[in-house]
Each structure stands twice: as structure tokens, then as C-alpha cells.
Amino acid sequence: MSSFRLMYLAGLLLAMQLSSALAADAPSLGPPFVVPVDADGVQRATVTLDSYSYSPNHLVVQSGKPVELTLTSVTTITPHNFVIKELSVEQDVGAGKTVTIKFTPTQPGVFPIYCDKRLWPLPSHRDKGMEGRLEVKP
Ligand SMILES: [Cu+2]
After folding, report:
1. Which residues contact 85 (CB under 8 A, 6 or more apart)?
2. How far is the CA of 73 from the centre of ligand 1 (A)?
């Protein structure tokens, strides 16, 4: 094989890797999921964690009412977490585990949700698309 042909193939491979990396940079935000308010006034929802996604990943809640999220991991090996930095939420979720978190957002706003786990030197899970959004309505 000529060196020109090898360079052409290498370039093709690089282009393929770049395009897949770019695709991973634009995680799709799902339809807004309005978290229902239970009779006791608590807004409850279940979020499924997988590699590398949250489902649903676009949660809408009301300000001033407690939020209780059941985080269920469906992975067999990879640990994940659930971070909403602005609300001081940071919860590890081991592979196959389910944990419940409770917090009360007091300010309306739009806050990123993400997983900051990473297996160095690979990109973080957030970089691989494991992120979402919490919308807090007044
Ligand atoms: Cu993760």
C-alpha cells in the first residue's frame, strides 16, 4: 500500500472520530417532563440512569415545594452520579442501585444536571452526553 493511500485512510478515520465526538457534544434534551405534585405536596419522579443518559432528562418543577427524585441505575458496572451544582445536589448512584434524594428549590431558574464521573483519560460522562436540565418555575 502506498504511503499516500495510508494517509488518506488515516484522514478518513480521523474525520469519522471527529464527527462522532461532535455528535456526543450535542446531547438531545428530551421533552419537558412536568413532575407531578403528590397529595402530600411533594413533587416526585423517577429518573433512570444509564451509560450515558438520564431519562427523563428535562425535569420541570415548582419553586418552594419539596422535590423527591428516585434515581435508578440500570448499569451493571459503571457508577454514575447526579449533580445539580447550583442547588448543592450531588448524589452517587452505584451500578444497579436505587437511591432517593430530596431537596427544595427556592429560586426559579434553569439548572444543568450532569454526571461528572470520568475514567481518566477518557472524557467525562457529561462530555459523553450524560446531562439534562432542571427547570424551576415560580
Ligand atoms: Cu456517569
Report:
1. 111, 112
2. 10
Distance 54 CA to ligand 1 centre (A): 9
One-letter amino acid at 57 equals N
Ion ligand 1 nearby residues (CB, 5 A): 80, 115, 117, 125, 130
pLDDT confidence bin for 32, thresholds 50/70/90: very high
| Cut 0.90: pTM above it | no
Is the separation of the CB atoms in 41 and 66 below 8 Å?
Answer: yes
Length of the chain: 138
Residues with Cβ within 8 Å of 39's Cβ and at least 6 positions away in sequence, in order, are: none
Percent of the chain with pLDDT over 90: 80
The architecture CATH gives domain 29-137: Sandwich (2.60)
Report CA(136)–ligand 1 centroid distance (Å).
23
How far apart (Å, rounded) are the C-alpha atoms in residues 129 and 64? Answer: 29
pLDDT for 5 equals 56
Phi and psi at residue 118, to the nearest 5°: -155, 145
